[in-house]
UniProtKB/TrEMBL annotation, chain A:
Organism this protein belongs to: Vaccinium darrowii
Domain of life: Eukaryota
Record's protein name: Uncharacterized protein
Automatic annotation (TrEMBL), chain B:
Source organism superkingdom: Eukaryota
Protein name: Uncharacterized protein
């Protein structure tokens, strides 16, 4: 009945049996409870397994300690090549840059991609191998890890799905499999300051995952990120070019946006640096920007005024409160939870000089937002206008 | 009729269905937005039942108008996509306007247009309505939720965003015009070749891969959009299809075993066959353009008839003018004539010590041509394998007294051969003259002198008199310059090969390299140290010539050099060794090496190669 991985994941006395157990995960799924909490007192992750009462409960009644107390399976066999990596979430904004970078640096890249009606052909076109698996179906994971040296995890659930299926349950399964199958390095992308915002579900999950990785004993690197410049294109640059309305908030929050290509580059430098093993790095862009500043910059570069719709942060919070009231909007509420961050944090950035020193990277080599957007506008302006006639929204509706 | 239903439905939705809108009265536009979104969610969730779809549409209609023309545009566009534009209803215009006035919305052109496009027969199709409403809701909802996010980008997998984010000029890998360049990769499944293919794909090149068998294992190893050509480098006939349409070739195939037959087949004959096939293809292209192609050579002289020999003067002379000819000097003689076989033969003997004979002609180039567009001379000659000196006189055409002489020595083989002499090989006779400027060349001379002749290899006991010669001339052409390399060959330095087989391997590789150099293609020969399977771009590289390197190099770095060399004019016609940087023990440094750190940002190849010898 119990489906076990062929591994030595021993349970320490007094702790809950913690084998990869799809049924268990399914159970949690069905109950809809969040099987974790922000553990501020204990360094160990506390988990509640079934039977847990249905409903949204965040407290644990009996917090059992959970450990992955096992050494990696280092039994003799065919040695794994150091250039073989698995990228989880390869179709995402960051993931595809990771894949490109890896391929260009000569790695053999395998991409874990969810089975989908329209396969991610661009990954295959670049020369990566695509394997179909789904983090929310743990039984599909182990096969993808065979022969892999390093796992780079840049996956996050899609906005429309419940936040914890991929981001928590899937990740736990992935990490356990990685541990069980002797993956030699695990790179995990987290969010900056995720330990300070337990009220934001995604950040709490990321923080718990960080801890889970640390406890698992995997050789790991955790990289916390602030924000991607690529996101600004869709959010501000394109609407301004197309003379559509741009939505911004009046929050004074500053975010140190970073180019995903730089993130990918630094990631691989970190990956090869033995000194970074087991460390937590934060990657932040050279300067932190407010929404208004970004819009002003885009306006200047595009040479046209933006039609800005400013949404006060209070409204966002209010929406969140309202959506929290109903169970069927709870996912929406989770997604809006960043408004809490927006109101509390004034600067979402981190000093980078130490990281640069550690990695031996020149700070000047990291692209600034001005440069990035300028490149974008000068290069794409014309192209985009040509394409505007044909291009359409991509989402497929049924 | 249906429209009225829809509009009432809209009113209904706005007032009754949205319990939150009251709260947010003070900010009208925002209220609309948020209200719609909250409702939207409910609508989206409820509208599975067909009855509700009309509601959702009406919300769309008004929502699209006031706040975001984008939404309206989106709806309009999607309708266009459905291709049902015939059912345009003019009455609809009025209806739409009235409706908007009722709803006290600000009137604008866009709005009117949006409203008018709303009224089509297609609109009342409940499936279409539901879909459209969801589109608009989703977009607006995404915008709102996007505000509360930090590092999430809208997920668009379509080609547009792909182009912007990856393939387009925004991408650090992009090379302008790469999509118009087709590169044939030979040995695409080798350690280097695999990475070369990926790098080329990432940069947007069109890639062809030559494989021996297209079995599943091979196909899986290559990116899906690589064109796979089946062929074998050992089989010239199979290469025709492979080179068709190719602009450049990267050859990273190597023999799988060190059996001499294998080595010969892949490392020597393979290169030779492929260069021939590629040249044939280039020549075919050149012919199609009637010799006007940039790849066409310029014919300087073709010796096939008695007239063609006209203008060529035979002269003789001696280097020691002040010495009285010795008593037993046999003298010298030479003639240039059309033999009975139809060959133009320059032959004779030079017995005088320090004497020489030469064949010379004043060049007459076709109108509008000058030699500065060319990079060297190509001679097709035969004979008994002596070496000759080719002398070019350059100077202002009107005043021959200012001419300067430049010379270059070339060897021939017994039988016919083609000799390429790059202009860069010519050295001034007077050491302090400036280097040769091909533009000023006006006279061409071929000189034979008995000095420094090497006996040709032949059956022992065959008596050779090195003082007589025979040179059968077929043609002299000027080779067009190319900015870039056409053929990149990944060879090896011989390090890391087991010593017993090293000789054979190197011999085959060298033969392959030589055949490439002679082919007339722009070539780059890369001789990496022992290959290591590790990621590239980590360690500094040393570029050197003369077989002095001692370190290994990662496959990815070799692949990177291949890809960089495609468009680097300094890489053309160069052979070089490359390996990781290493630190010599102090006191034991033999020579100074300059290391270059491979990086995407800087172009390390040009400075590294520019100090190295060309045409090696």
């Amino acid at each position: 009945m119990a489906w076990r991985l062929p591994t030595q994941m021993a349970t320490s006395p007094g702790s809950v049996d913690y084998h990869v157990h799809p049924r268990l995960i399914k159970t949690c799924n069905l109950h809809g409870s969040l099987p974790f909490r922000h553990a501020s007192s204990s360094p160990l992750l506390r988990l509640v397994f079934s039977p847990s009462p249905p409903g949204r409960r965040r407290c644990c009644v009996q917090p059992p300690l959970v450990r992955c107390a096992a050494a990696a399976n280092l039994a003799p066999g065919t040695p794994v090549r150091g250039t073989s990596i698995l990228v989880v979430g390869a179709t995402g904004t960051l993931g595809r840059q990771i894949v490109r970078r890896a391929l260009d640096e000569g790695y053999d890249v395998r991409c874990l991609v969810r089975p989908r009606p329209y396969p991610a052909d661009f990954l295959r076109d670049w020369g990566a191998t695509v394997v179909n698996a789904d983090l929310s179906k743990p039984e599909t994971i182990p096969a993808t890890l065979v022969g892999v040296h390093t796992v780079i995890d840049c996956a996050t659930g899609r906005p429309e799905e419940p936040i914890k299926t991929v981001d928590w349950e899937g990740k736990v399964a992935l990490i356990q499999c990685a541990k069980a199958m002797g993956i030699q390095k695990f790179v995990f992308f987290s969010i900056h300051n995720c330990d300070k915002h337990p009220e934001v579900p995604l950040m709490e999950i990321k923080y718990c995952t960080e801890k889970f990785i640390k406890d698992s004993g995997l050789n790991h690197i955790i990289i916390r990120l602030c924000g991607f410049m690529q996101g600004l294109i869709g959010q501000y640059a394109v609407p301004i070019l197309e003379e559509k309305s741009v939505w911004g908030t009046d929050a004074p929050t500053r975010i140190a946006y970073m180019d995903t290509q730089d993130v990918a580059r630094l990631t691989f430098i970190a990956l090869r640096n033995e000194k970074v093993n087991g460390k937590l790095l934060t990657f932040a862009g050279p300067r932190a920007w407010t929404t208004q500043e970004v819009i002003t910059l885009c306006e200047r570069l595009a040479g046209q005024d933006a039609n800005v719709t400013t949404v006060p942060v209070s409204v966002l919070r209010l929406t969140r409160q309202v959506t929290k009231l109903f169970e069927w909007t709870s996912d929406v509420a989770d997604r809006l939870a960043f408004s809490e961050v927006l109101t509390s944090d004034t600067v979402f950035s981190a000093p980078m000089s130490e990281t640069y020193n550690l990695l031996g990277v020149d700070a000047k080599a990291v692209v600034t937002l001005e440069k990035y957007l300028q490149d974008y506008f000068t290069n794409i302006l014309k192209k985009l206008k040509d394409m505007k006639a044909q291009s359409k929204q991509s989402d497929i509706y049924f | 009729m249906t429209m009225t239903t829809a509009s009432t439905g809209a009113a209904f939705t706005n007032t009754t269905c949205n319990p939150y809108s009251k709260k947010w009265r003070p900010k009208p536009p925002l209220e609309l937005v948020l209200g719609r979104n909250s409702t939207s969610n409910s609508t989206v969730r409820c509208c599975r039942s067909a009855g509700n779809r009309l509601f959702s549409l009406s919300v769309v209609a008004r929502a699209a108008g006031p706040e975001s023309s984008s939404a309206a545009a989106a709806t309009g566009k999607s309708k266009d996509d459905e291709g049902n534009q015939k059912n345009y209803d003019n009455d609809g215009d009025g209806d739409g306007d009235e409706e908007e006035e009722e709803e006290r919305s600000p009137s604008s052109q866009q709005q009117a247009a949006a409203a008018s496009t709303m009224i089509k027969l297609d609109d009342v199709n409940p499936v279409g309505l539901g879909r459209r409403s969801r589109q608009v809701f989703d977009e607006l909802w995404r915008k709102l939720t996007g505000l509360g996010q930090i590092s999430r980008t809208t997920r668009t997998d379509d080609e547009t965003s792909l182009l912007i984010n990856e393939g387009g000029p925004m991408c650090e890998f992009a090379i302008p015009g790469a999509q118009n360049i087709t590169v044939l990769v030979v040995g695409a499944t080798s350690r280097v070749g695999r990475i070369v293919v990926r790098k080329l794909m990432l940069r947007g090149y069109t890639v062809k891969a030559l494989v021996r068998k297209a079995d599943q294992q091979v196909v899986d190893m290559l990116p899906t959009s690589v064109e796979i050509v089946i062929g074998d480098v050992g089989d010239p006939s199979s290469l025709k299809a492979a080179v068709k349409g190719c602009n450049k070739i990267i050859y990273c195939a190597t023999a799988r075993s060190s059996i001499t037959g294998d080595l010969n087949r892949v490392d020597y004959q393979g290169v030779s066959n492929l260069t021939k096939a590629f040249q044939d293809y280039n020549n075919k292209l050149a012919q199609l353009r009637a010799g006007k192609s940039s790849k066409s050579k310029l014919l300087l002289a073709k010796f096939k008839s008695a007239e063609s020999l006209h203008g060529w003067d035979v002269r003789q002379g001696t280097y020691f003018q002040d010495v009285v000819p010795a008593k037993y000097d046999g003298g010298m003689d030479a003639k240039f004539e059309l033999a009975e076989s139809g060959d133009a033969v320059f032959s004779g003997y030079v017995l005088t010590r320090g004497g020489y004979v030469e064949l010379s002609k004043k060049l007459s180039l076709p109108l509008g041509r000058s030699l500065d567009r060319y990079e060297g001379l190509l001679l097709s000659v035969g004979g008994n394998g002596r070496s000759y000196v080719l002398i070019l006189e350059a100077g202002p055409p009107g005043d021959t007294s200012q001419s300067k002489m430049y010379f270059s020595r070339f060897n021939t083989k017994v039988g016919f051969c083609r000799v390429r002499i790059p202009f860069s090989c010519f050295r001034p006779v007077k050491a302090d003259d400036p280097p040769l400027d091909p533009f000023l060349v006006h006279t061409l001379t071929i000189r034979f002198e008995p000095r420094r002749q090497r006996p040709i290899e032949g059956p022992a006991g065959m008596k050779q008199d090195l003082r007589n010669f025979q040179l059968i001339m077929e043609y002299i052409k000027a080779l067009p310059t190319g900015e870039e390399t056409d053929f990149i060959l990944v060879s090896c330095t011989g390090l890391g090969i087991e010593p017993t087989r090293r000789e054979q391997v190197l011999k085959a590789k060298k033969a392959g390299e030589d055949s490439l150099r002679r082919s007339g293609l722009g070539y780059t020969i890369i001789r990496p140290g022992p290959l290591k399977e590790e990621p590239g771009g980590q360690r500094a590289l040393i570029f050197d010539q003369g077989n002095r390197i001692s370190q290994g190099i990662s496959c990815a770095d070799v692949a990177d050099i291949c890809v960089k060399a495609l468009h680097d004019s300094t890489a053309r016609n160069r052979s070089f060794d490359v390996c990781y940087e290493y630190m010599a023990e102090s006191g034991k440094e033999l020579y100074e090496l300059v290391a270059h750190l491979p990086d995407k940002a800087n172009n390390y190849l040009t400075p590294a190669l520019s100090i190295l010898e060309k045409n090696t």
